[in-house]
């Protein structure tokens, strides 16, 4: 067992907080970032909601029409990804000095390995407070930080007390902490997996830890083993810096598994529309198109096709993605997830834009 001290930082209601910073008149109000609600008739989803809006029950990934019903008085804002990317970059740059290594995950999270910067958990907690204050002073947005002996525990801890919380889990408290959580809190366990586990009478992490690994592997494949390791609070993965972007894309888990090819093809169009904007914004061309299809039983297929030339053409991505997906659409099994990516990238602009892109692109949204 290592004696690492890992911090996980996660911004509070990130997009909404940035919007409140830009528009001080929205501070203290329910702010909902997502599609235009069009008087409640819109079909998009909520990207995020300020903590004020969460009091009305509004949540990420909720249909905007539902948010409108729950909170018609809310301030509805269309997302400004470039702005969020800029704020995120500034924050990531600022926290660099606090750790030997930082690993950015998506737009609003990062792990920091503070093992060599701090001698114990008490010092680590002070470090976390300094980081939170500096971000608040300089960027005018808040974050929450979790501290633990590995990345998994740090991540679960950062979510424990939000907003502006600090949660420290000492190595000797890991078991008690993780056993108290519901399985849904573990990374990778969404509503569907939660439901399957519930059917097996597994609702808490403590119950998951007591389950035979083989049973879990039979049902969930390799993820069953990961799940069991997580339930024990184990995670040996390092905080690793990521240097280059190899691909850019999106994937979506359907709210309900689908068996209509039409729905999957439409989802592909929508995913491509989304990330293609980023390809254009950052002047990126691609040569390879990749797809991923996951069935209801978690069986997963990936396929790729490489062109002989670089392009940034949206229709090409759509056509190839659909061609690659076609053989998987007429199965007896329903589809749980579909993803599309462009890879073998060629960058047209400067390093600076590249860095911004990393922030914007590394987050892959759950569309409904
Ligand atoms: P999160 O960190 O999951 O959420 P959050 O920062 O808004 O709120 P919290 O205080 O609970 O951490 O995601 C970061 C940003 O990613 C979020 O501000 C908006 C975006 N996002 C989506 O666009 N769709 C989603 O379904 C989720 C979960 C997030
Ligand atoms: Mg967040």
Structural write-up:
This protein has three domains: 1-175, Reverse transcriptase/Diguanylate cyclase domain (Alpha-Beta Plaits, 2-Layer Sandwich); 180-231, 5' to 3' exonuclease, C-terminal subdomain (DNA polymerase, domain 1, Orthogonal Bundle), CATH 1.10.150.20; 247-367, DNA polymerase, Y-family, little finger domain (Dna Ligase, domain 1), CATH 3.30.1490.100. 39% of the residues lie in helices and 23% in strands. With 368 residues, it is α+β, with helices and mostly antiparallel strands. The longest helix has 21 residues, at 261-281. It contains 14 helices and 13 strands. Residues 10-15, 47-48, 60-61, 107-108, 162-163, 363, 365-366 line the site of thymidine-5'-triphosphate (TTP). Magnesium ion binds next to strand 1.
Describe the protein's topology.
Elements: E1 6-11, H1 14-22, E2 31-34, E3 46-49, H2 51-54, H3 64-70, E4 75-77, H4 81-95, E5 101-105, E6 109-113, H5 121-139, E7 143-148, H6 151-158, E8 166-168, H7 174-179, H8 191-199, H9 205-210, H10 213-220, H11 222-231, E9 247-258, H12 261-281, E10 284-295, E11 300-311, H13 314-325, E12 335-343, E13 346-347, H14 351-361
Parallel strand pairs: 2-4, 7-8
Antiparallel strand pairs: 1-6, 1-7, 2-3, 5-6, 9-12, 10-11, 10-12, 10-13
Helix pairs in contact: 4-5, 4-14, 10-11, 12-13
The protein binds thymidine-5'-triphosphate and magnesium ion.
């Amino acid at each position: 067992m290592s004696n690492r001290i890992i911090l996980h930082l996660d911004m509070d209601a990130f997009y909404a907080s940035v919007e409140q910073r830009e528009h001080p008149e929205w501070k203290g109000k329910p702010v909902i970032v997502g599609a235009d609600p069009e008087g409640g008739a819109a079909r998009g989803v909520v990207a995020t909601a300020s903590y004020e809006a969460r009091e009305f029950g509004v949540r990420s990934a909720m249909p905007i029409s539902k948010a409108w019903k729950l909170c018609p008085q809310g301030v509805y804002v269309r997302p400004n990804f470039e702005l969020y990317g800029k704020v995120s970059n500034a924050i990531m740059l600022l926290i660099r000095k606090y750790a030997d290594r930082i690993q950015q995950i998506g737009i609003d999270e990062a792990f920091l390995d503070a093992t060599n910067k701090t001698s114990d958990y008490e010092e680590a907690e002070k470090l976390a407070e300094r980081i939170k204050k500096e971000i608040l002073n300089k960027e005018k947005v808040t974050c929450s930080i979790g501290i633990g002996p590995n990345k998994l525990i740090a991540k679960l801890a950062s979510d424990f007390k939000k907003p502006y919380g600090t949660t420290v889990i000492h190595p000797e408290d890991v078991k008690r902490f993780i056993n108290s959580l519901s399985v849904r809190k573990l990374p990778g366990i969404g509503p569907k997996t939660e439901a399957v586990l519930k059917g097996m009478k597994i609702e808490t992490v403590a119950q998951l830890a007591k389950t035979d690994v083989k049973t879990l592997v039979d049902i969930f494949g390799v993820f069953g083993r990961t799940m069991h390791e997580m339930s024990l609070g184990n995670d040996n993965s390092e905080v690793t810096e990521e240097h280059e972007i190899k691909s850019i894309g999106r994937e979506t888990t359907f709210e309900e598994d689908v068996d209509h090819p039409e729905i999957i093809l439409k989802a592909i169009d929508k995913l491509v529309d989304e990330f293609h904007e980023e390809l254009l914004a950052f002047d990126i061309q691609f040569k390879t198109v990749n797809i991923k299809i996951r069935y209801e039983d978690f069986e997963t297929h990936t396929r790729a096709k490489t062109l002989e030339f670089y392009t940034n053409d949206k229709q090409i991505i759509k056509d190839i993605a659909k061609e690659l997906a076609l053989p998987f659409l007429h199965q007896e099994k329903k589809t749980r997830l579909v993803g599309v990516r462009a890879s073998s990238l060629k960058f047209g602009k400067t390093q600076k834009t590249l860095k911004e892109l990393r922030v914007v692109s590394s987050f892959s949204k759950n569309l409904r």
